[in-house]
């Protein structure tokens, strides 16, 4: 689960992190009052969407040379003007794709005098099985670009969960970021604070880009991106309350109601599979034969008929789907349960696109019988390779 920048900053501030004063707004009418609460005279007007690259993004409804989704304003009048330009319009960044995201919230923040921009994140490093800091002196840039072009400028520092961030760890981070004086003192305090927030709130990612050294020599969290482990949200009602469903795909929201692992993609072949590994293999082989999957969907090992029906309905609700591949290897999941769910869903919502079904494993003959006697126009497949070829051919009209 993701949250907005202003929510992330409020959370980090509650742990003691240094952030600028700011006010979120939801309409242009609130802009002047929000700005009047800040010291000024420099303000920053920030679009609040769940995507990076906002500053370099462009609004669909505005001229191509218009400023992006993060703008400086040197008066309250400029704040009001920018708020009017941005709210309700669609911001396109490298992370949103060409469709972009509508800006429904802004964050009006006090400006900062920046001396240096740094990069910092905390994530779970699965290579060592520990949380780890990733830091670089090259803040404000894509960390992927830094890793490719100047990897020597990145430090990855795993943290012992039993010990937490020690003074030695904090000193290594300060050295990697070339911090001295007040900035180093701030870093020695800040790094344990960020780690505590990461652990206490079950975050999967905490990214501060940039972490800035101001001209007065102090550190400040200038931007913050936070993602949480969805499996741990039952422990954090305060975090769940921050969820903005307008930033999420409607199909993914519906899938979460049935505990389905679903991720919408940009292809045209809908997939319903049991098991994450098999789902990934199914997506790969669809691409191998020249098509693109429209989704990742794992119905799990113990899905009921109702759950399978819901999964099928979610796939068919996607207008981009031109064909559906059901690929089930029955272990815990029984093939007859899948078949019953598919038949029920098709009878309820209809079937307007080709459907290929490959069943194998527990109760496979019962499953095939249910499909064969259903009267549905289903293309049977013998194995995964056969299934992928048949759905790609069907979609392409062969």
Characterization of the model:
- It is a single chain.
- With 398 residues, the protein is of the alpha+beta class.
- It folds into three domains: 21-110, ATP-grasp fold, A domain (Dna Ligase, domain 1, 2-Layer Sandwich), CATH 3.30.1490.20; 114-239, 2-Layer Sandwich (D-amino Acid Aminotransferase, Chain A, domain 1); 250-395, Rossmann fold (3-Layer(aba) Sandwich), CATH 3.40.50.261.
- It contains 13 helices and 19 strands.
- It has helices spanning 5-14, 31-36, 76-86, 143-149, 167-176, 181-200, 237-240, 250-257, 276-288, 305-316, 335-349, 364-372, 384-395, and strands at 22-25, 43-47, 58-59, 70-73, 90-92, 101-102, 106-110, 114-125, 130-136, 154-158, 203-214, 219-221, 225-228, 261-264, 269-273, 295-298, 323-330, 355-361, 379-380.
- The strands form five sheets. Strands 8, 9, 10, 11, 12 and 13 form a six-stranded antiparallel sheet that branches.
- The longest helix is centred in the middle third of the chain and has 20 residues, at 181-200.
- It is elongated, with a radius of gyration of 25 Å.
- The two termini are 41 Å apart.
- The model has no long low-confidence stretch (mean pLDDT 91).
């Amino acid at each position: 689960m993701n949250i907005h920048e202003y929510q992330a900053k409020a959370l980090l501030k509650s742990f003691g992190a240094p952030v600028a004063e700011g006010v979120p707004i939801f309409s242009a009418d609130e802009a002047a009052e929000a700005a009047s609460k800040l010291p000024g005279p420099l303000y920053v007007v920030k679009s609040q969407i769940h995507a990076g690259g906002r500053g370099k993004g462009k609004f669909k409804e505005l001229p191509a040379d218009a400023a992006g989704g993060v703008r400086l304003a040197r008066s309250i009048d400029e704040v009001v003007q920018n708020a009017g330009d941005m709210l309700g319009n669609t911001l396109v960044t490298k992370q949103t794709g060409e469709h972009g995201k509508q800006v429904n919230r802004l964050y009006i923040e006090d400006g900062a005098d920046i001396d240096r921009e740094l990069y910092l994140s905390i994530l779970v490093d699965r290579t060592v099985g520990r949380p780890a800091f990733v830091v670089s002196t090259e803040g404000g840039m894509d960390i992927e670009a830094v890793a490719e072009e100047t990897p020597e400028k990145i430090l990855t520092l795993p943290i012992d969960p039993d010990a937490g961030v020690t003074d030695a760890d904090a000193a290594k981070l300060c050295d990697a970021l070339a911090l001295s004086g007040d900035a180093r003192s701030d870093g020695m305090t800040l790094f344990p604070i960020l780690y505590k927030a990461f652990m206490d709130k079950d975050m999967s990612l905490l990214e501060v880009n940039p972490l800035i050294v101001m001209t007065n020599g102090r550190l400040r969290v200038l931007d913050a991106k936070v993602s949480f482990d969805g499996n741990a949200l039952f422990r954090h009602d305060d975090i769940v309350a921050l969820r903005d469903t307008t930033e999420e795909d409607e199909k993914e929201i519906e899938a979460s109601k049935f505990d389905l692992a679903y991720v919408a993609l940009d292809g045209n072949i809908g997939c319903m599979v049991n098991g994450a590994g098999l789902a990934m293999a199914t997506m790969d082989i669809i691409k191998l034969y020249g098509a693109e999957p429209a989704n990742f969907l794992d119905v799990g090992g113990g899905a009921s008929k109702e759950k399978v029906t819901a999964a099928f309905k979610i796939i068919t609700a996607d207008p981009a789907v031109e064909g559906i591949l059901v690929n089930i290897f029955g272990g815990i999941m029984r093939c007859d349960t899948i078949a019953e769910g598919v038949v029920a869903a098709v009878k309820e919502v209809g079937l307007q696109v080709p459907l290929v079904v490959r069943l194998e494993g527990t109760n496979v003959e019962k499953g095939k019988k249910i499909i064969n006697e259903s009267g549905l126009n289903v293309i049977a497949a013998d194995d995964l390779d056969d299934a992928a070829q048949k759905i790609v051919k069907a979609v392409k009209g062969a």
